[in-house]
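Two folds, back to back.
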Amino acid sequence: MERQLRGWLRYCTYFGIYVGAFEDSNLRVTAHNVNSTSSNFAIDTRKRAQWCRRAETCSTLMRQRLYLYLLTLVLGVLYTHGLITRATMPGISWVAATLLYSLHVMAVLFILLEALHKQAQHDRFLQVLEQIEVTLRLRLQQKVQHEVLFNGLRQLIAYLFVFSMLGFALFALSTIWLPYADYFWHGIWLVIIIRIRLIQLIVYLCILRHFLQCLCARLRSIVAARLTLRRQILDVDCERLCSLQRLLAVKEIYELLHKEFQLLNEFAGWSLFASISSYLLDAICTLYWMLLSIDGFVRRRHYEIAGLFMLLPLVVILWYLMYLCDNCQQLVRIYIYFLHLLILILHTSRRALCPNCCLN
């Protein structure tokens, strides 16, 4: 899973969303690939390959950081130029447009800063995702359905990307005849970066939700197995031992998932807050300007057509992001419910086996 995600994140580096090294499969040298009669030659070859890979990684990280510094410089120049240009053509919505443009700039600035200073947390997040998948598959014998998950994610990314780009294109075409478009042409690339960042976080939440669903399904099966064992006259030691191992694996996976949500807040919390805030203000301003256009405001005629193309993708992405967050909270409640039920079953079984013992 980590390899697929890093493959997708390769394209995010062009927008300043991610900074990280990507392994080159041509530089991987193992003992099976080394045709030599001496073990020392094989060790030296692997050391040289590791050194080349480390040097390539450092060079890649340096280029990406320089690229982020360049993006930050361009962001500052573009923001200043937008303020100077906009000040020469004041309108009734000057304050709202300037505030919205400033929020977009602030959100992109948070994204760039997180990519620079939260790289370790982001990489750790990807590594723990791989660890959760392996633990689910090996220790819990739970079918993760890796291919089904990534096929669904590919379709989701394609739908959201096409829907967003189509909305941007239609909005740009429909704003050609407008008297003015405020900061649209200065902030179009800011909106694209924020949109890609939100799509990236949606993908992460989909993966975490899938793992929570697998964990709840396995915990439900454990509870069902315990209820079945209570109706049996004799218990089998190996089954009880297996159930104990599964409980320990469930505990470990839940701790890893809890850690994943903490890491997600660490490396994407501020940018997520700023992006959602700018999106909510963007939706409110767009809806207000659409109402002004319908009412016949002279500077905003026919804006309801252009605003609809921008408002619809924005609302869909915000709604889906909030739906995923709520869905994850519901799965956590389901997990807690089954955990309490399992504790009650174990407590009842212990009292049935030892009726004379003193239990709190």
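---
second:
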Amino acid sequence: MRILMIEDDRGLAELLLYGLEDEGFSVDICHDGYEGLLLALQEAHDIVLLDRMLPGMMGEDILRRMRRDGISTPVIFITALGESAEKINGLDSGADDYLVKPFDLGELLARIRSVMRRTLAQPSPFVLRFGDICFSEKESKLIHNDHICILPGREGQLLSYFLRNPRQVLTRLQIIGNVWGPEAEIEDGNLDNYIYLLRKKLNSLDTAVQIVTVHRQGYCLTTKQVV
């Protein structure tokens, strides 16, 4: 298992490195928030150990960017901020667990095992996730935070196809062939109407996920860029 540790306390990072490697983990370490974000966005690790107070970019901002970009890599906050409100804020930002310094290696290992068990126990093929939304295909239910929107059949099928191909430019022929069927004969503006309706639903949920038009190519499901 490969771990990314984003921690500016070099002494602590070194101690954890030795302990985790003794347990058979492969560990990459960085001490700066911006560098940590770049590594996290590569999705090359099984779990991220993330400090909240970092130079360059705060841990919560790193985590929010990861989740906004559809990266579901499990994250454990390791931080000196131990107040209940801080824990709640950290977990609400998208963290899978929260460990307060000081802690011993045994507790960290237990938290890692627990998070990975929960992650592996989420196999449902009927729930598609991207960015800050999830979509239950069985119920045609689009969910963002506490907001739920039920999509009519064709809109649900269209969103499912986009969610299975995020960040890919999909041509009109590809979309029509996979959603309506290869032999379907639909009016040229029909797809545009469904895209319009789906965009309205996403906007109503105030999600960062959006469908963009790629000129003369097709459509792409992506996330809004943060300036």
